[in-house]
Amino acid sequence: MERGTGFGTGRKFAELDFHSVRLEERFVRAMETFYKRPDKTIWEASEDRAEASD
User: Fold this and answer.
1) Is 1 a residue whose pLDDT tops 50?
2) Quick one: DSSP state of residue 52?
3) What is the DSSP letter of 1?
4) 42 membership: H or E segment, kind and range
5) 17 Cβ contact partners less than 8 Å away, ≥ 6 residues apart
6) 1 Cβ partners below 8 Å, 6+ apart?
7) Mean pLDDT (whole number) for 34-53
8) How many whole angstroms separate alpha carbon 36 and alpha carbon 40?
9) pLDDT-based confidence at 24, cuts 50/70/90?
10) What is the rounded end-to-end Cα distance, in angstroms, of the chain?
11) If DSSP states are collapsed to H, E and C, what string results for 10-41?
């Protein structure tokens, strides 16, 4: 897996394998969101409710 931006998720999670590209991309997006706003809850850190509960 070689995706992601922000805090280097492509490198940090390079060996991640959920056997689903969609789930891997979703995981990386979630980690990037939490990295940007670590002091917030999942709901507050997410851009919208759909992202938080997706």
Assistant:
1) no
2) H
3) -
4) helix 42-45
5) 1, 24
6) 10, 13, 14, 15, 16, 17, 24, 28
7) 78
8) 9
9) confident
10) 21
11) HHHCCCCCCCCHHHHHHHHHHHHHHHHCCCCC
Q: Where are the domains of the chain?
A: 9-53
8 Å CB contact between 20 and 30: no
Residues 9/3, Cβ–Cβ less than 8 Å: yes
Greatest CA separation for the chain: 31
- In the block, tokens 């891997």 appear at 24
Give CA–CA dist 32/36, Å, rounded.
6
* pTM for this model (two decimals): 0.62
- Cα 35–chain centre separation: 9
Distance CA 35, CA 37 (A): 6
